[in-house]
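Quick one, tokens below. Sequence please?
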């Protein structure tokens, strides 16, 4: 059986519940405020960007390490048998691009006359 409560106890209970409800409504108001929503969204995006950038850094670092290991020995000295052919290929490609660019400039100059 429930104990009989006095009017003062009932009024105190009502006041306490009103206070709890006011706190809850304040929390909802803060959570639903546009600045709070925007701040939360910005924080989530920043977290995703940081995570993605971290993963990209790790992947790039792995690729650089693999390339470095192909062109250097375990003690860090260069492997000329691998570097020289790649360097020659790069010089050849740059030379072809330069020659192609030069010839296209000459042919466009002749058309303008």
């Amino acid at each position: 059986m429930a104990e009989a409560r006095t009017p003062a106890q009932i009024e105190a209970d009502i006041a306490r519940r009103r206070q709890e409800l006011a706190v809850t409504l304040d929390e909802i108001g803060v959570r639903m405020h546009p600045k709070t929503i925007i701040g939360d969204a910005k924080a989530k995006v920043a977290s995703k960007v940081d995570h993605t950038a971290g993963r990209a850094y790790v992947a790039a670092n792995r690729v650089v390490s693999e390339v470095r290991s192909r062109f250097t020995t375990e003690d860090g000295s260069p492997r000329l048998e691998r570097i020289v052919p790649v360097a020659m290929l790069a010089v050849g490609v740059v030379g072809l691009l330069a020659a192609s660019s030069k010839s296209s400039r000459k042919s466009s100059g002749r058309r303008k006359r």
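The helical segments are 7-32, 34-71, 80-112. The two ends are 111 Å apart (CA to CA).
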